[in-house]
């Protein structure tokens, strides 16, 4: 039986550290890159010519927020196909507007825009920090980008007291334009000019990167995030509580599994940005990043099509666990439980890309490594979310399975998953990356 290298406790500890150290897609991609480099993967630049060789291991990023890692198997691609594992680096959050500075009754606030389908109520009364990418200039005129992370709590979105809104528990709505504007500072006077956010960011950049010689911040992509660290909780330590479980949990799971991939078989980890807003960007799943990579790996069209036909992708994105307080929100026979194993996601209208063939192959692999599986189908009278799975399947033409770890509070500022499930998905992903036959169902007529 295939056994992964990491035990559940060690895997979860690494996951907690990765979650806490990755407040934005930029930081997540940087952290993934660092692990890959430490493991001997060679960095590539898209602007350079490539000379990929069987037996090599590589990684490449786009926009600093999406990454592809590749194990080039020694066996011919036409013999084995490619194992692909996909996830996304972004999560719903609040992002600073280009001109965010506000002075309201002497309180310095920063205007924010909601990114993705965020659950807004949990953002109140949290200790918030700021992180992201800033694009800077040196004295000589060179323009370049750096990552920043304030780390300490610097902002809060205070709730309105119930005394001022007696219907708060029964009928309060949230206006995203005016109700969730964070407070950062109390100014000396009510008519004082609010500090320029670029000046604040410049000071932070110079503090974090004194060697860079930054003289000006030209622009930025800055998000707010909860400073409470990821943690294992529960009376018997059965749950992981953290921001960005959707979907950094899957990114980390794919990373750890790829490090144990069979060197004879070609494998890809692809973690893209902008899934929460439709994936339509240069670095999103609807963009050409993965397709460009495959074209450079296999320039000849006929060979590329044949290899893709012998390949399979696992699209890993969290699933909705059945909530004990809202059980009616699930189909009565498809309500996944936390700590009962990964979830195969199915949708007749192709919101998920699972087919009977990809599901069967994954079930076979999980059976071999003793990983229990669950199924999720949305209630027929309710809408269904989606993933990068259908996008990659339609853009690349690769057979795809949608799977994920059951989760509570998806898109909240703090989500909840089971301590057992991510490790079980990792165990299954290791088996997938070590599967040395083309993942094509053999049909007898």
Automatic annotation (TrEMBL):
| Key words, A-Z | Aminopeptidase, Hydrolase, Metal-binding, Metalloprotease, Protease, Zinc
Q: Which Gene3D superfamilies match?
A: Aminopeptidase i, Domain 2, Zn peptidases
Family indicated by similarity: Belongs to the peptidase M18 family.
Enzyme class, one word? hydrolase
Query: What protein name does the entry list?
Result: M18 family aminopeptidase
NCBIfam families assigned: PRK02813.1
One of the GO BP terms on file = proteolysis
EC number(s) reported in the record: 3.4.11.-
InterPro entries named in the record: Peptidase_M18, Peptidase_M18_dom2
Q: From which lineage does this chain's organism come?
A: Bacteria, Pseudomonadati, Pseudomonadota, Gammaproteobacteria, Cellvibrionales
Membrane-crossing segments per the record: none
Q: Which cofactor does it need?
A: Zn(2+)
- Which superkingdom, per the lineage? Bacteria
Looking up CDD domains in the UniProt record yields: M18_DAP
A GO cellular-component term linked to this record = cytoplasm
The family database entries (Pfam families) matched by this protein are listed as: Peptidase_M18
Which GO MF terms does the UniProt record name?
A: aminopeptidase activity; metallopeptidase activity; zinc ion binding
């Amino acid at each position: 039986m295939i056994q992964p290298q990491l035990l559940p406790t060690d895997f979860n500890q690494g996951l907690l550290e990765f979650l806490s150290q990755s407040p934005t897609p930029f930081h997540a991609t940087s952290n993934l890159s660092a692990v890959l480099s430490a493991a001997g993967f060679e960095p590539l630049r898209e602007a350079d010519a490539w000379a990929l060789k069987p037996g090599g291991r590589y990684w490449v990023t786009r926009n600093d927020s999406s990454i592809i890692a590749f194990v080039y198997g020694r066996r011919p691609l036409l013999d084995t196909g490619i194992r692909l594992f996909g996830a996304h680096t972004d999560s719903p959050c609040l992002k600073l507007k280009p001109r965010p500075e506000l002075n309201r009754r002497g309180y310095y606030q920063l205007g924010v825009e909601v990114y993705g389908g965020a659950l807004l109520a949990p953002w109140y009364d949290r200790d918030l920090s700021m992180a992201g990418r800033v694009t800077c200039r040196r004295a000589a005129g060179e323009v370049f980008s750096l990552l920043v992370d304030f780390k300490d709590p610097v902002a809060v979105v205070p709730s309105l007291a119930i005394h001022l809104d007696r219907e708060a528990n029964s009928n309060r709505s949230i206006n995203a334009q005016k109700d969730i504007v964070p407070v950062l500072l109390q100014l000396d006077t009510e008519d004082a000019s609010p500090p320029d956010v670029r000046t604040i960011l410049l000071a932070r950049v110079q503090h974090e990167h004194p060697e860079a010689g930054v003289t000006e911040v030209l622009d930025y992509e800055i998000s707010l995030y909860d400073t409470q660290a990821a943690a294992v909780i529960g009376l018997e330590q059965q749950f992981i509580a953290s921001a960005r479980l959707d979907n950094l949990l899957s990114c980390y799971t794919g990373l750890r599994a790829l490090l144990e991939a069979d060197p004879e078989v070609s494998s890809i980890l692809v973690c893209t940005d902008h899934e929460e807003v439709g994936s339509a960007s240069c670095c999103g799943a609807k963009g050409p990043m993965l397709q460009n990579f495959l074209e450079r790996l296999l320039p000849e069209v006929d060979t590329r099509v044949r290899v893709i036909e012998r390949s399979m992708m696992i699209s890993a994105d969290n699933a909705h666990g059945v909530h004990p307080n809202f059980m009616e929100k699930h189909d009565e026979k498809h309500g996944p439980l936390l700590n009962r194993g990964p979830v195969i996601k199915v949708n007749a209208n192709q919101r998920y890309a699972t087919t009977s063939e990809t599901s069967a192959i994954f079930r076979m692999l999980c059976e071999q490594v003793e990983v229990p599986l669950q199924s999720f189908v949305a209630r027929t009278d309710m809408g269904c979310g989606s993933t990068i799975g259908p996008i990659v399947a339609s853009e690349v033409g690769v057979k795809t399975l949608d799977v994920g770890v059951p989760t509570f509070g998806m898109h909240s500022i703090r989500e909840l998953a089971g301590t057992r499930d991510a490790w079980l998905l990792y165990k299954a992903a290791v088996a997938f990356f070590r599967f040395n036959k083309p993942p094509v169902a053999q049909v007898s007529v």
